[in-house]
Amino acid sequence: MRRLTYFVALSIDGFLSGPDDEVDFYPSSDAYSARMIETLPDVLPTHVRSQLGVDDEPQRTFDTVVMGRRTYQPALDLGITSPYKHLRQYVVSTSQPELDADVTIVRDDPVGLVRALKAEDSPLDIYLAGGGILAGALLDEIDRLVVKLYPVVAGAGRSAFGSVRFRPTRYDLTDVVTFEGGNAVLTYDRG
Fold first, then answer.
1. 43 φ, ψ to 5°?
2. What is the pLDDT of residues 137-190, one digit of tens each?
3. Bacterial bifunctional deaminase-reductase C-terminal domain: which residues (predicted)?
4. Cα torsion for 178, 179, 183, 184, to the nearest 10°?
5. Measured between alpha carbons, how far is 182 from 95 in angstroms, rounded to an integer?
């Protein structure tokens, strides 16, 4: 069965963005960026893959992306209606109009969507791009967390899992990669 992987950027205090969706405060390094491009080009938006010269890279990890409307919005702000052309794209939203034939808008039942995607016969997994509210709704379906931890305290912002009720969910740490400058990538698999 395919896995749902929540690939998420977080501050040390657990925020995926600032209160107004800011992410420009996340520090990076050349080594960190190079590693992300090399190991996970699937998670890069298509226009970024093209700019970096990896647009011809075959999918190695994911063939499908699921995201919430807030995660979809930055692409729309740039006039891009199909941000992950190299993947099948699903946007979970009750308000987002359909703008592109390559993007399927899911109005209800994100859990049913993910279960159907997991049941497909494919060697590749499903990328949960976020955001936090959607991740909270899909917590029981998330098989792997890849946390890009940034060495900064945001102080306030949007939670990685929205406003999920208290419900401890066990994951096992299976990989840690650290970088000069303080960035770390932590991989957790459902325990």
1. -85, 0
2. 999 999 999 999 999 999 999 999 987 788 899 999 999 999 999 999 999 999
3. 4-182
4. -20
5. 38
| Count of C-beta atoms within a 10 Å radius of residue 1 | 9
d(CA 138, CA 146): 15
Tokens of 154: 């945001």
Q: Are 153 and 13 in contact (CB under 8 A)?
A: yes
- Listed by start position, the domains of the chain span 4-190
Are 81 and 103 contacting, i.e. CB atoms less than 8 angstroms apart? yes
Which of the 8 DSSP states describes residue 67? E
> Residue for token digits 């590693």?
35
Owner of token pair 């977080």: 10
Cα–Cα distance list, 97 to 111, 114, 177 (Å):
21, 21, 39
Q: State the pTM of this model.
A: 0.94
Domain 4-190 of CATH type 3.10.50.40: no
